């Protein structure tokens, strides 16, 4: 982790907004804390109370507060209450169990601060802006992710709606009803937000990787959200044998075949990066079978997961083909057999070029020069982007990753990212 | 598995010896059978009864039967009862739990058949021969291996003597005492066999790998027994992270580092083989931590075992150095850390050159041409060889590996191997 030297900014919000941000984050750190970190479960009373706190705060600062039919909160300047089209600045209020305080919340607070800054300085925003505090986004509670944004766009499936809470076993549908949502239109796939009124979608979020820490930058404009394809449990099947008695030429060793496969994929990964394309590749779960494996036994099987992500659908398709090709080669070369389980895939979501360019210009105005990067993690922005809404994101430097209590965002960095959005909103025009 | 076409042999034992072999193996298959395969536990009543059956059989065929102080059985022609030096033909009577019927037993039966053939055909063997049925050899019961041969040579350590039975928890010492052995001299490290009287040590054993099946050969002369060095649990420690959000350059991925390590070792393995040296390499246990791993998480650690074997101490030393060197390189290249647990090592045992040459000549006489191969598994022969006794082995083709109920040796192959030994014993001279 690097601590941030205060940035010399030409464009920034007033210092009292820094104090207000500190106060809001501190409120949530205290009032949603768990034994470790914070827990703000999706579609829970804690989530409702969290929104109530923000609603009251927005009201106190003279903003207009509305609720949509999904019990999301919407904040705007009074003059924008009915104006369309509008720029939607959104993020989610829920957290993972025992997570960090900033994942999701930062985006809502950033949007709110922009509205409060505009209100207090009587700045005229050229376009209407609505800040939305979305409810459930995290998959850690029920399984599906982006629940609120999918439901808004009529894209939350029946299967997702009836998925069960990981601990209490109640369905998402029941949890939604318990917080006052009529789930019938969701089940019917009815869009609950008129996207024709949404001019652009903008989301501020902490970075969940280490790039900004490593590059010593407070913020970044996001170029796109990586898509992925994943396998939870692939198997490489070989043939067991005595570790001392079987010569190399007669082995069917799945562990060496897997090592060879990962090394080949790694080489292709490097080549793809050298060509300037985007990709990440992870095999997070690897293991021989504890019921059978032994130090002196050539294993008969090893299972492993794969998670391959890229901003480019072409890279994903090429890697999917390469994976099968390499497996096929290794099956021949090493006398093993690969077994593929079901693939789960999500398409990449590209951020809107014009928005990226404009946000980059705003970032240059705020910190001197722009920095653009891909988002590896998924976000509500991807749901809107893939629905055809021009979308973009701004990342804030964050140490120690996300989804854990050690997640660490400096308020000074957050204020830089907020200033980028504020600058952008101040210059936006249809 | 390949089934054997009957071999045209110029030198063989009489067909009734084939029948006798079938009868003896059938007796053990029936009388030491377990729910699966056979179980002849080391230093057990079953082992005692097994020896009693062979003792009675040897007596019935006019051989001289003796017991040594370790309750091993010794068979010889009456005229050789006190003659020294002698060729010691030995193998073990015990099996692993639910193992195959031939591992160990085949070597005793082969030796016995040679003596019975000589007795019945009144063949004069030029040198005295003693066939020894050793008790405990398998490590599956108490942990230590080669218990009988180590104890004979005064090399069974106190720690090994007090090791506990894997299921009943009684010590090896107590089990030995229960079958009538005075363990005081063993504990004192007193040699119980005068190796100056042993001219040569010869052992027939099933092959525990697939080489003879693959090469369609009934038997082989063994050039040496691979030594090894092993690590039960090495660790590669990296840094956890979001599978989508951390670019390749900032990853410390232990799974990719391990894949790279195994691929590098595999390349060196190939080079070593191409240079004509002997080696096998196995990583039988590999795994990320089930308590922490996830498909979407860069793992922070992977553990793995290594078992590297070679007939050449130079290859083992070179691989030990290479392993450390590659780990060191990968630590730098991939930002991970390797943690080595304690190494366990066994020196290679070379078979006596002259015996290998003579046995090869005998094999040529029996089946037309000789075949020489390394033994990957350890054997009592290694204990004698490393004590300075000229030692050699003959392997019999065996399908499905050993230490399992599917172990499968054809009696016709066994008779070929026995004929090689019989031919050798008929030509031996001091």
Task: Please describe what this structure looks like.
Two copies of one chain form a homodimer. Chain A contains 13 helices and 17 strands. Chain A is elongated. In chain A, α9 (254-274) runs antiparallel to α10 and α11 packs across α13. The first copy, chain A, starts with 14 loop residues before the first helix and ends with a helix. In chain A, a hairpin with a 5-residue loop joins β1 and β2 (73-76). Mean pLDDT of chain A is 94; it is low at 1-10. By secondary structure, the first copy, chain A, is an alpha+beta fold. Chain A folds into two domains: 15-226 and 348-425, Aminopeptidase (3-Layer(aba) Sandwich); 228-346, 2-Layer Sandwich (Alpha-Beta Plaits). The longest helix of chain A has 22 residues, at 313-334. In chain A, strands 1, 2, 3, 4, 5, 6, 15, 16 and 17 form a nine-stranded mixed beta sheet that branches. In chain A, strands 7, 9, 10, 12, 13 and 14 form a six-stranded antiparallel beta sheet that branches. Chain A is 37% helix and 20% strand. Chain A has helices at 15-31, 45-60, 105-121, 147-152, 158-161, 172-178, 184-187, 211-215, 254-274, 313-334, 353-367, 380-386, 411-427, and strands at 64-67, 73-76, 86-92, 128-134, 198-206, 219-225, 227-237, 241-242, 280-282, 286-288, 297-298, 301-310, 337-339, 344-346, 349-350, 372-375, 391-396. Chains A and B meet through β7, β8, α9, β9 and β10 of A and β7, β8, α9, β9 and β10 of B.
